[in-house]
Sequence to fold (397 residues):
Amino acid sequence: MRRLESLDFSGYADRGEYLDGNVTQLSAYIRFGILSLAEVRDRACAAECDTASRERFLIALARYDYARRVLALLGDEIRTAIEPLKTGWGADSYERSLPQEVLDSTTGLACIDAFSSELRETGYLHQRARVWLAAYLVHWRRIAWESGAKFFLEYAIDGDLAANAIAWQSIASSFSDAPTIFNRAELERHSGGRFCTSCPKQFDGCPFAGDIERLATALFPAKADEPGRAPELHAAADRYAPIAGLPARPIVLHHYDAMRPAHPAARLAPDAPSLFVNDAALYDEAAVNQVGRTIVYAALGSMRAEYRAGDFVDEALAFARRHQADGVLVTASADPALRRRFQRLGEQIAVTIVPEDPFVVLDDGVDLRRFSRYWASARRSFNAVSSAAKIVPLFSN
Ligand SMILES: Cc1cc2nc3c(=O)[nH]c(=O)nc-3n(C[C@H](O)[C@H](O)[C@H](O)COP(=O)(O)OP(=O)(O)OC[C@H]3O[C@@H](n4cnc5c(N)ncnc54)[C@H](O)[C@@H]3O)c2cc1C
Fold:
């Protein structure tokens, strides 16, 4: 909360795209629900900063909301290609294993080696660096995006099944209209040239040198101009109604997607016995890496909870029985592994799934095929909020 309060958003629009720019590094807090998107949104709306920076920042948050909504629709299928690739290469042209020299940071490309080291050593990479490293692996080295996505999920402190898969699929072109590539000029501009000046390949052998069109022709010689039709992904409208029929003697079950003391289920029953279950198999299924598990454990320190290690469902049931509970309250999650646990639990005891604090309220049937379609509806929701609260317009037009 201290970190959130002290954030300075000014300059985010101008410099956020630069490696030394003013980004927030909130992603791990958001990923594990230590901060809700709604809290961060409200802070950004109240902050004194230029309108363009506020807008850009809200769009960044919206990308996370969007990814989680796509995850809620697709479940584990988000781990596989949503659409065919538009690169002209068949899916079987891509290698499954990552090049060892990328893992060891010995490619001889100063930028790529630095990004790989930074990711493995700190768990954090700026959005731009993530895009460049991912594009290099998929398009220059022709590595399957699924393998690259696993590599990132293994190390990122904000490792998130939804945000990570959507980003990789978008770069690869299985969830976008075209593959994402970059060139040396873009990299130099956004990194202040700090890699190129010390790169052994600065004068000879830089694979990113040249204009984008020429690079695209070399990388995708068989690319078709007509992208195929993307499948529709319609989201149900958001409806927030008061929760009826609450259990008289509930327990609250915490989980790794909502690690703050006052998450919605905990708010509903602040005095109820509450439990956190450390379930290694669940973590593995949900691809929560070791750093993520540590962050969750640390966040638990500020929550009122009993702690158990074991099977999420068995431990929850045993805890409920011990407290003679007639129901379980949980905060909703888009995570398919958690949703399966909620369902299994619901076969034994009443489970009330309490919606997360809404970030935006979408109209009915919004097509989530592309972020732009989601954003058209989400933006209206923001403007409705700002005019109701009589605060400055959130968006310039
Ligand atoms: C290949 C690739 C993999 C990624 N994997 C993850 C991941 O596992 N977890 C993750 O949280 N983000 C992921 N991102 C998105 C983005 O890179 C990070 O959220 C961002 O860099 C985090 O830094 P920040 O908190 O300083 O971001 P800021 O620029 O300060 O943005 C504020 C918040 O907005 C959200 N956000 C910003 N950009 C995106 C985006 N493109 N997609 C979704 N949410 C976004 C994050 O919650 C972030 O904390 C990935 C991007 C790429 C290209």
